[in-house]
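Reagents: none. Just compute today. DUF2628 domain-containing protein.
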Amino acid sequence: MKQYKIFTHPSGQQEAVKQGWSWPGFCFGGFWALFKKMWGLAALILAGGFSIGFLLGFIMPLDAANLLTNIIALGIAIVIGVNGNQWREQNLRTRGFETDGDIVEAKNPDGAVAQFLGGETSVAA
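Predicted 3D structure written out:
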């Protein structure tokens, strides 16, 4: 079971944020950020990634530039995987969502929201 923190918007909408490592953030980076409505982060990741590869291609031999670009991309992906869910929590707060800090254990985000709406919290924060 995974642990989720539930955020509620004044309109009544709930969002579940998994605690810990973000596999979608690690694997899909900027596209994950776009999907989660983190526009600035998405722009930074996508534009930064293309810029780094483009610039390195001008200043280094192609093979070395490709290797260094891949190493940098892996480093960025790891940073996103480690911090992605925390950044998502911050983004939800800036969009008006609030949380009581309770943690819900569930198999997936929809299950976490259902448990939360049913009044079941598994772990106190």
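The beta strands are 2-8, 14-18, 103-106.
Action item: order primers for follow-up constructs.
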